[in-house]
Structures are given as structure tokens and as C-alpha cells.
Amino acid sequence: MTTTLKSKLHDDLNAAIKGRDELRSSTLRLTLTAISKEEVAGAEKRELSDDEVLKVIAREAKKRREAAEAFAQGGRTEQAEREKAEGEVLAGYLPKQLSDDELDTIVAQAVEEARAAGAEGPRAMGAVMKIVNPKVAGLAEGGRVAGAVKRLLQG
Questions:
Q1: pTM of the full structure
Q2: What confidence tens digit (pLDDT) does each residue in 63-103 have?
Q3: Distance, CA of 134 to CA of 87 (rounded, Å)
Q4: Is the separation of the CB atoms in 105 and 92 below 8 Å?
């Protein structure tokens, strides 16, 4: 029997509560709440697939990263550290991110494909992104992908 990612989150939450791990339990609670909200959003209630749950976790992890940066810029290091720690808890549930070299290799192949199809220069950004995004979905953040595409298109 396979367990869903959502049930794994529930099991891990129970273990964190029993182990009195406040950081982990509060992070998992917030994430499960976000998943529940996503399930009831829209016309009718539905059960999210593991891919959809991963997207919610990735969105929550991104929120933590952005909040940590904002707190750090505001000089609130304690809150920034807390947000970073929560982001690390969530990162454990996400697929391993591509390294810069791996991402550059995929983008370079996509740039070649786009050029073969007639797309040239900075205007080729959209065409290249259409090729790259399905290949790196969930493995690299959109901003990193866009930066790599711009860098390679500019030469």
C-alpha cells in the first residue's frame, strides 16, 4: 500500500507533537492548513494529488524564504532564523533542487531548440521558457530558471 504525501505529513505531524518538536509541528500544521484550504477552494471539495500537494509545499517554502529575507533586511534576525528553519523543514518534502550546472545544461539545450525553431535574441525568452518549464517543474524555482535563460540568451 502506498501512502500519500498528505498522509505522510499527518504522520510526521503526530510524531513531531509526540516528540515535542514545536518548530516542526507548527510548520507542518500550517502546511496542512494550506493544503486543506486548497482542497476546498473552487466549486467543490476535492482531494489533492501528490503533485498538487507538492506545489502547495513549494509555495509555502517560498513564502518562508521571502519572509526570512524581509526579516533579515529589517534587522529582525530571530524571526529570520525561524523562517529559514521552517523552510528547511518543508524542503525535506520537496524533490532535490537542480544545481546551477544542471540547470544551465537544460537551459542551453532549450536555447538550441528555440534557435533551431527560429527564435533569436532576447525575444526568444518566451519560447525557451516554454521548452524549459516542463523539464524543470518542481526542481528549480521560476526566478532561477528565468535568470539562467536571460544569461544564456544574452550570450
A1: 0.72
A2: 888 899 999 998 898 998 999 898 888 888 887 877 778 88
A3: 24
A4: no
